[in-house]
Amino acid sequence: MNITAVLPEECLSQIISLTSPRDAANCKVSVVSPLFKSATDSDAVWERLLPSDYHEIVSDSVSSSELLVSLSKKDLYFHLCHNPILIKKGTMSFALDKESGKKCYMFGVTGLYITWRGIKVKIETKILSPKTTYGVYVVYKFPEFGDGLQRGPIQLSFCFEGREQEKHTVFVTNMGGPISRQ
Q: How confident is the model at residue 49 (pLDDT cuts 50, 70, 90)?
């Protein structure tokens, strides 16, 4: 019995939307069945694979109206995977991880609170994806001359409201070279 003769497109879309973005994008059956192709490309599938707050995130972008109005949900998903958008008045960028659909944020220097004794970043956890491990990377360039950040041990502290502060010491060995962590 032909499955496409039994299940309506809405059911197929529902089933596909319960998979991962990678599985939905690589659905092999969509090549041989126009009904599967239509279900795989449907806004219903990709609406569920986009983050639940994507409207709010994209609306905060300079190009929000163009993205939300002109692109299908599938095209919006892949646009956000390949073209990070500036949000929070240009202090952050947002993108999606192509394989998982998880949120990826990058802070620009204007989004940081920098003091002589340290750099502080405050982020609201509601913008993060649940059940996700995040990595924090500090990228900087040593000045060729000057009294700025010196090579050597640097202490990084991470704290989350309601939890004890975690401290890590990293040693910067040379510009562009490896950093060791204790």
A: very high
Question: Can you tell me the distance from the alpha carbon of 57 to that of 19, in angstroms, rounded to the nearest whole number?
Answer: 23
Question: pTM of the predicted model, to two decimals?
Answer: 0.70
pLDDT (tens digit per residue) in 63-107: 666 777 789 999 999 999 999 999 888 888 899 999 888 888 887
* Token digits of residue 61: 């972008």
Write a three-state SS string for the chain. CCHHHHCCHHHHHHHHHCCCHHHHHCCCHHHHCHHHHHHHHCHHHHHHHCCCCHHHHHHCCCCHHHHHHHCCHHHHHHHHHHCCEEEHHHCEEEEECCCCCCEEEEECHHHCEEECCEEECCCCHHHCCCCCCCCCCCCCCCCCCCCCCCCEEEEEEECCCCCCCEEEEEEECCCCCCEEEC
